[in-house]
Amino acid sequence: MVRFKNRYITVEIVCPFVSEDKPLHLKPKIFHDTLLSKIQLLHGDFGVAAVTNGFLTKYCNENTRIAIIRSRHGPHRFVTSSLPFITKIGKLDVKLNTLHVGATLKHSFKFIEKHQRAYLDSMWSKLKTDEERQKLEAAVLDYTKTDVAINIENIA
């Protein structure tokens, strides 16, 4: 039996035209398809064929603008080399920053938790009531924002 190694790429989505206090309306399916089309453009059919097996968008948070992409070890280099060249996702002008590349999803979530705690500390000073703070904390620390439909499509 062969064990397949994966890499989890944590990406920050920077959108200069949408203010940081508003959620970024971005579907994981659009993000996934945009990334595959950019890999096709840069690395051709070989890059897409290498990346497609095991390629998933595992997590996408609209509030903190962070996404996790799963890719196989080896072809993950095609993904990470294509990320800086993405300037548009759907109708949004964006810039993607690679924050972390990890071997396990657990370590990626640990990194995201540290990153999002820093984000919460900076945003709490702008909020006035405790209710607003609790809503923001619940939205930021929600790790269930994943589109299960595209993940099921790609697993089969």
TrEMBL record:
Q: Which GO terms describe its molecular function?
A: ribonuclease P RNA binding
The keyword Manganese belongs to this UniProt entry's keyword annotation: no
Q: Name one GO biological process term.
A: rRNA processing
The protein's matches in Gene3D superfamilies, at most eight in alphabetical order, are given as: Ribonuclease P, Pop5 subunit
Coiled coil stretches, renumbered: none
Query: Where is the protein found, in the record's own terms?
Result: Nucleus, Nucleolus
Alphabetically sorted, this entry's keywords are: Nucleus, rRNA processing, tRNA processing
Q: GO CC terms on record?
A: nucleolus; ribonuclease P complex
Which InterPro entries would you find in this protein's record? Answer: Pop5/Rpp14/Rnp2-like (IPR002759), RNase_P/MRP_POP5 (IPR016819), Rnp2-like_sf (IPR038085)
What this chain does, per the record? Component of ribonuclease P, a protein complex that generates mature tRNA molecules by cleaving their 5'-ends.
Q: Which family does it belong to?
A: Belongs to the eukaryotic/archaeal RNase P protein component 2 family.
Q: What is this protein called?
A: Ribonuclease P/MRP protein subunit POP5
Q: Which organism is it from?
A: Mythimna separata (Oriental armyworm)
The record lists the lineage as: Eukaryota, Metazoa, Ecdysozoa, Arthropoda, Hexapoda
